[in-house]
Amino acid sequence: MNRRIISTFAIAFATSAIAFAAQSAEIKNIVIVHGAFADGSSWRKATEILERRGFHVTVVQEPLSSLADDVAATKRVLDLQDGPALLVGHSYGGMVITEAGNDPHVEGLVYVAAFQPDKGENVGTLAGSKPPASNSIKETKDAKYLYLDPSAFHADFAADVPKADAAFLAQSQVFAAKEVFGATVGDPAWRSKKSWSIVATEDRAINPELERTMAKRAGSAATEIKASHAVFASQPKKVADVIEKAAKEAGK
């Protein structure tokens, strides 16, 4: 009788363990946070690739009014996910996912040519530590918002994107409140969760060496792609490959 009970318990335990392992390995929700001077529509190609591979992708349209507002917008999207999620951030979006990534829905973080701050750091201090090749950022007349000079957008943001597409990105860019770039993050989510990083080796908006340094500091699995700052648009398949790999590994 005791043997039968033990055997039944062992089978039940093994079945539960297998079910749990299978469940934890399945991360199908991808939440993307775009950077400054862009919007979520520029992620369409990468999104379509990921969806064809069976992922559920949502792109956060954060207001770029403050870091707190952008984190709140991201958390609202995370609350809609059915199950665990992988959080992806491009450029300034890296600041957002570093803070929002502490949300319990998040299993892992992917930084795409992004800022990857430690506690107390902001965009200004990070960019100043290893300046980019070019700086085409300008102020609006009211000195409250920043934008990327449309005449320099192709060269400095999306050099490897077709000129017509880059022109559309320039004209549809979202202006960012100046305070966004001075806001500091709290405890970074990458300290407690797995992270991956894509270094855009031809990036003129964020120094590629800074991207490498931040990834190394965070212990992120780094992949280098020969591309501009808009690597997600010019190399959507390669970016999708990294995101898919991260989704599979984060769930283990």
Task: Explain briefly what this protein structure is.
With 252 residues, this protein is α/β, with parallel strands linked by helices.
Structure in words:
The chain has a single domain (36-250), classed as Rossmann fold (3-Layer(aba) Sandwich). The strands form two sheets. It has a six-stranded parallel beta sheet, sandwiched between helices. A three-stranded antiparallel beta sheet has the order 5-6-7. Helix 3 crosses helix 4 and helix 6 (150-156) packs across helix 7. It is an alpha/beta fold and 252 residues long. The protein is globular, with a radius of gyration of 20 Å. The protein has ten helices and nine strands.
Task: Describe the secondary structure blueprint for this structure.
Layout: H1 2-24, E1 29-33, H2 44-52, E2 56-60, H3 67-78, E3 85-90, H4 93-100, E4 106-112, H5 123-129, E5 137-139, E6 145-148, H6 150-156, H7 163-171, E7 176-177, E8 194-200, H8 208-218, E9 221-225, H9 231-234, H10 236-250
Parallel strand pairs: 1-2, 1-3, 3-4, 4-8, 8-9
Antiparallel strand pairs: 5-6, 6-7
Helix pairs in contact: 2-10, 3-4, 6-7
Domain AB hydrolase-1: 30-242
Organism: Rhizobium grahamii CCGE 502
InterPro entries: AB_hydrolase_1 (IPR000073), AB_hydrolase_fold (IPR029058), Sec-Metab_Biosynth_Hydrolase (IPR052897)
Which architecture would the CATH scheme give at its second level?
3-Layer(aba) Sandwich
Name the CATH class.
Answer: Alpha Beta
Number of helices: 10
CATH topology: Rossmann fold
Radius of gyration: 20 Å
- Strand fraction equals 15-25%
The CATH homologous superfamily is termed: Alpha/Beta hydrolase fold, catalytic domain
Largest sheet, strands/sense/barrel? 6 strands, parallel
What is the overall pLDDT average?
91
Distance between the termini: 37 Å
In total, the number of strands is 9
Q: Tell me the series of helices and strands, N- to C-terminal.
A: HEHEHEHEHEEHHEEHEHH
How do the strands line up in the largest sheet?
Answer: 2-1-3-4-8-9
- Structural category is alpha/beta
Name the poorly predicted regions: 5-24
Helix content: 40-55%
What's the structural domain tally? 1
Oligomer: single chain
Question: Which shape, going by the Cα principal axes?
Answer: globular
